[in-house]
């Protein structure tokens, strides 16, 4: 099996001045994940590494760069899933951790549980020796600015939710195993303790070697109502291509609950898709040593991996 990785940096509205950073960020993440796959590494390691790379990038609403809740704090959710045996690990409402995806993987591998939340997740992180990152370090100027603006009496937080920026990755490795990973800071000015789709298995992501893997982004409550990730895999189980399955599920979510979003998909034969019903979604994929990436509907740039790696080392 030829390995494939697909990543997204969130669906929504990507402001002009942030486009370049979003493109560079998803390309870097895809190249890092593919580097692992190319050396015979697992899909699980590849998606974790790709997502970790975007959590560390302040352009995205995950890890450093996460949006703030109503109290001005960062609370993050993440999930990872192994398509080989349907094992999964997730964390929700976690604070003071640089890479929630790493913690989600530890939940999967070191506990009998699938989801740890808030204080319990914090205690588990301490037990696993994950260093605490001061909350302030995860807050960017932009997130603080947005939080303040949303506190204004005449503000409309809904308007700001359009620029979402959840991050995710899906991959298939040379053994034919699939995996997904998704991580987010959630909605700006959300209620304390609000958990969206990301940490919920079947909504924020799903992976099953029998069909494929998907990671979602968009309006979390809408995604949860239609269990979007699992819905896409169901359509693929009925014989649809990744692209058709993604479009069918996104259309259903829009018509049934008025929700917009985006998804990345890979099936168990290595076909992939990156589809969205929002204005934009930053995405990148590597297959057959070719990198493809874009932000707008219909936009697709292509480079060889070698060319992309060379230009990345020169600062893109």
From TrEMBL:
Query: Under which EC number(s) is this enzyme classified?
Result: 3.4.19.5, 3.5.1.1
Give the site residues for Cleavage.
165-166
Record keyword Protease present = yes
Q: Which UniProt keywords apply?
A: Autocatalytic cleavage, Hydrolase, Protease
Superkingdom, taxonomy of origin: Eukaryota
Question: Where substrate is bound, by residue?
Answer: 194-197, 217-220
Q: What GO molecular functions are on record for this protein? A: asparaginase activity; beta-aspartyl-peptidase activity
What GO biological process term is on the record, naming one? proteolysis
Catalytic center at which residues?
Answer: 166
Q: Which InterPro entries match?
A: ASRGL1_meta, Ntn_hydrolases_N, Peptidase_T2
* Catalyzed reactions: L-asparagine + H2O = L-aspartate + NH4(+); Cleavage of a beta-linked Asp residue from the N-terminus of a polypeptide
Could you confirm whether the keyword Protease appears in this record?
yes
Q: Which Pfam families match?
A: Asparaginase_2
One cellular component (GO) term of this entry: cytoplasm
Q: Which family does it belong to?
A: Belongs to the Ntn-hydrolase family.
Output this protein's name: Isoaspartyl peptidase/L-asparaginase
